[in-house]
Amino acid sequence: MKIYVVSGLGADFKVLEKLKFPEQHEVVFIDWMIPNLNESFADYVGRMAEKIDTSEPFYLLGYSFGGIMVQELNALKPAEKVVIMGSIKSDKEKSRLIKMGEVTRIPKYLPIRLFNDQTSVFYTRLRKFFDPKNPKVIEYFQVRDPYYLKWSVERISEWKFEENPNVIQILGDRDIVFPIKNSKPNYIIKGGTHLFPATKYKEVSTLLHEIFI
Questions:
Q1: Less Cβ crowding at N or C end of the chain, within 10 Å?
Q2: How far, in Å, are 17, 18, 33, 166, 189 from residue 52 at the CA level?
Q3: Which residues face 62 on adjacent strands?
Q4: Residue 50 to residue 62: CA distance in whole angstroms
């Protein structure tokens, strides 16, 4: 069976490269695409869904923003199992900062020029402050198209979704992007920051073997 995987905002497969998946399954990474001008989230999800082969059963796995994406994909093309890591199951689990962005609509009015390479580098350095033992932070943040980044931040702040109780959620107890206090995850990674798939990969790999039987 195939496991379709979507990584985090601006991230490619590198943040998940140390994970060991069950050998009996084929892992297929769905890369982020650059949104078309003024493209709606629904239309974008539809384009991402085109990469999923529904002629046979499959699983979905998403990390961070990818966790939001796979839940949207599941609504179009239902999977046997949906697993999200470092992500949320509904808009009710948003952090205060993200909810503030939703209410004030600040992300919509941020200039695209703010999402340049210098800002991206600053962001990765800031993330490294919270994950000092992970020297590869800047390598994870590879999709740096300014329009994509601004569009993604807007979509996260606006996201509305009813929780699906069948979604399996894995969270780190030190995640400041999606604080664990707002959720009731199925699995908790002790000492895990938002980058726990990279820093706690052995523990996460064990869980994935248990989940994707």
A1: C
A2: 21, 23, 14, 20, 29
A3: 6, 84
A4: 17
Tokens representing residue 133 in the block: 């033992």
- Amino acid (one-letter) located at 83: V
**CB 58 within 8 Å of CB 1:** yes
Enter the pTM of the model.
Answer: 0.88
> Do residues 2 and 51 make contact, with C-beta atoms less than 8 angstroms apart?
no
Q: Is 61 exposed, middle or buried (0-12, 13-18, 19+ CB in 10 A)?
A: buried
Q: Tens digits of per-residue pLDDT, 95-152?
A: 988 988 878 878 777 778 777 665 555 455 444 444 555 555 556 666 667 888 888 9
Q: Which helix (H) or strand (E) holds 171?
A: strand 168-172
The conformation of residue 97, written as its DSSP 8-state character, comes to H
Q: How far apart are CA 61 and CA 38, in angstroms?
A: 27
The residue length of the chain stands at 213
Cα angle 105, 172, 102 (rounded to 5 degrees) comes to 5
Rounded CA-CA distance 203/197 in Å is 9
d(CA 199, CA 15): 9
Residue 123 vs residues 9, 129, 137: alpha-carbon distances, Å:
12, 10, 10
Q: How far apart are CA 168 and CA 185, in angstroms?
A: 8
> What CA–CA distance (Å, rounded) separates 206 from 213?
11
